[in-house]
Amino acid sequence: MTTGFEAVAPERAVQIMRAWAFHPWPMSVQDGIDVYTSFGFSPHPQEPQLFTSDTSPDEADSFFTSEGDQIDSVHTSLSNIIPEALGAAFRSQVRAAYAGFVAAFTEVLGRPKSVKDKNGVFSSQWFLDNGVGVELSGNDGLISLSFESPEMAGIHQDDLRRAIVDYSPANDPLLEG
Fold it and tell me: Per-residue pLDDT for 167 more than 90?
């Protein structure tokens, strides 16, 4: 049972971000496994695309998705998960940790391309020169770090340019069919 909010240090978050974001893409499933095991994270026994994190060393709380042998996206936890009923009590701690991560990432990646903060959900998004998308996001109960492959980040950027926020066939022709 969670007794408090815990997050990795900003330096550790930058180390994790650099490993995924600056790894050569496309990234194979084995490359992804190699990245997370290099941090001492462990795979789920039956599903190696699920893996542990610093804040959940005994239970997989992070994952990547793939199409064939190529990774599309990676989602990893930078904090433990606070139950929703307790979230408000830890809001200031979560926000302070998030601000520390944004500052640390900005030193490495420059200013975020987009920043959102609405209804208790917040995020900062970067698109790197190598095509990778990096998103730091959170709410009152957790902070996570996500990566999009250059292909997926390109689609995401096209959607942002077209101002698509509702992913339905009526708004996105790629979903028709």
Answer: no
pTM, whole model, 2 decimals? 0.87
pLDDT per position as a tens digit, 97-106 = 999 999 999 9
Q: What are the distances in angstroms from CA 83 to CA 58, 67, 89, 97, 138?
A: 18, 32, 10, 17, 14
- CA 152 to CA 43: how far, in whole Å? 24
What contacts 82, CB < 8 A, 6 or more positions away?
2, 5, 90, 94, 140, 141, 142
What single DSSP character describes residue 168?
S
Q: CA torsion 90→79→71→118, rounded to 10°?
A: 20
Q: Give me the residue label for tokens 């995924």.
A: 20
Under 8 Å CB-to-CB from 95, ≥6 apart: which residues?
A: 122
Measure the CA–CA gap between 122 and 116, rounded to whole angstroms.
Answer: 5
151 SS3 class = helix
User: Is residue 56 helix, strand or coil?
Assistant: strand
